[in-house]
From TrEMBL:
This is Imidazolonepropionase. N-formimidoyl-L-glutamate binds at Y149, N323, G325. Pfam families: Amidohydro_1. It comes from Fictibacillus nanhaiensis. It catalyses: 4-imidazolone-5-propanoate + H2O = N-formimidoyl-L-glutamate.
Length: 423
């Protein structure tokens, strides 16, 4: 007997053959009309039509005619743990004040670094819990969390330890990334190589305590060069970590090409990726994680070339880039709309980009982002009639229910509930 049987108007069934979906594969998405999904002991044990499920017995049957059922969403690029906020900077941006001037006034990333250093581990945990609860209500069941707002040994470790604690206590599965090389702190100005060596010295502690699986670096004009980033990531790889990179967000420096050359799991942002970089993405296993919310929030007109990437054969994923400075949103549904309007992605590509490919971008392709018999039941029931509707109707939360490991963790109306529980 099943624990739960869910009958829905449509069921989205993204799946892969053990790897990310590339190029035209991203436009393939199985849809079951009048579908049914069965759950037992926390895993999916049945996928089919309601007619096929008619003979099944279940302790609980949820009749959701006219609603959509899908796997839980995966958000593969966030800066979850940080102190403070930066709403006061929005007015400065509206006035046209350059970011470097905001930085000189004590704002920008240095403002968040200062706040994060001054915030206790307990308070960072509570703040992270608040944001995770909101992510869960938007349908996210697996996500990545980066450090990078410490820029010193003590605070970077503090961020990673908080993320580990959140992973142990919140329903959302967190994958941690060490982004100590997020910027050059004031006390290392003019000495970026020395700072990178200090960050590398943390890897043994991070490995010993199991604080991160990936290492990331911000490769951009005024931060770290392509060569510095390459050396840094290769040393991290030697230490046993997966490689990620913030690449070509503004200028086409060649970070995309380098990421493909060294076998980075993902290259993120890529707004300024060159034609050669796009071509190499199509021939490599590196996943392009695109962050249209950041481009939107910064008021830019030029978005990452998603269509060219998909045409080249690349695997594309989507993410919020949730952070206090350039993308303060937990709403991955809104990112799906931006992907349609600004990246010109199809509904099928978008669904695969926030499920299958997003999972592979954080090393979870074997357990998350797909709907398959035998996998854990991370599911979302949506108050929408079909899979194309979410990108179309923007600015609201379409979630009706969320299950994590077969357990109902969000019911409609639970927006302000506390979801803290042991896994």
């Amino acid at each position: 007997m099943l624990d739960t049987l869910i009958l829905a108007g449509q069921v989205v069934v993204p799946k892969s053959n053990g790897e990310a979906l590339r190029g035209t594969q991203m436009n393939e998405l199985s849809i079951i009309d009048n579908g049914a999904v069965g759950i037992k002991d926390g895993v999916v044990t049945f996928i089919g039509t309601a007619e096929e499920a008619a003979q099944l017995q279940a302790k609980e049957t949820i009749e959701a005619e006219g609603k959509l059922l899908s796997p839980g969403l995966v958000d593969p690029h966030t800066h979850l743990v940080f102190g403070g906020s930066r709403e006061h900077e929005l007015a400065l941006k509206q006035q046209g004040v350059p970011y470097l001037e905001i930085l000189a006034q004590g704002g920008g990333i240095h403002s968040t670094v200062k706040a994060t250093r001054e915030t206790s581990e307990d308070d960072l945990y509570e703040k992270g819990m608040f944001h995770l609860n909101r992510c869960l209500t938007y349908g996210v069941t697996t996500m990545e969390a980066k450090s990078g707002y410490g820029l010193d040994k003590e605070t970077e470790l503090k961020q990673l330890r908080v993320a580990k604690q959140l992973n142990e206590t919140h329903p959302i599965d967190l994958v941690s990334t060490f982004l100590g090389a997020h910027a050059i702190p004031e006390n290392y100005k003019g000495r970026p190589d020395a700072f990178l060596e200090e960050m590398l010295s943390l890897l043994s502690i991070i490995s010993k305590e199991g604080l991160a699986e990936f290492v990331d670096i911000f490769c951009e004009t005024g931060v770290f060069t392509v060569e510095q980033s390459k050396v840094f990531l290769q040393k991290a790889k030697t230490a046993g970590f997966g490689m990620k990179i913030h690449a070509d967000e503004i200028d086409p420096l060649g970070g995309t090409e380098m990421a493909c050359e060294i076998g980075a799991v993902s290259a993120d942002h890529l707004v300024g990726a060159s034609k050669e970089g796009v071509r190499m993405l199509g021939e490599s296993d590196t996943i392009a994680v695109l962050l249209p919310g950041t481009t939107f929030y910064l008021g830019k007109d030029h978005f990452a070339p998603a269509r060219e990437m998909i045409s080249s054969g690349a695997a594309v994923a989507l993410s919020t880039d949730f952070n206090p400075g350039s993308s303060p949103t937990e709403n991955l549904q809104f990112i799906m709309t931006l992907a349609a309007l600004k990246l010109k992605m199809t509904p099928e590509e978008i669904w695969n980009a926030v499920t299958v490919n997003a999972a592979f971008a954080i090393g979870r392709g074997d357990v998350a982002g797909s709907l398959e018999i035998g996998r854990k039941a991370d599911l979302v029931l949506w108050d929408v009639p079909n899979y194309k509707y979410i990108s179309y109707h923007y600015g609201v939360n379409h979630v009706n229910k969320v299950w994590k490991n077969g357990k109902l963790v969000v019911g409609k109306g639970d927006i302000h509930a506390n979801y803290t529980l042991s896994k």
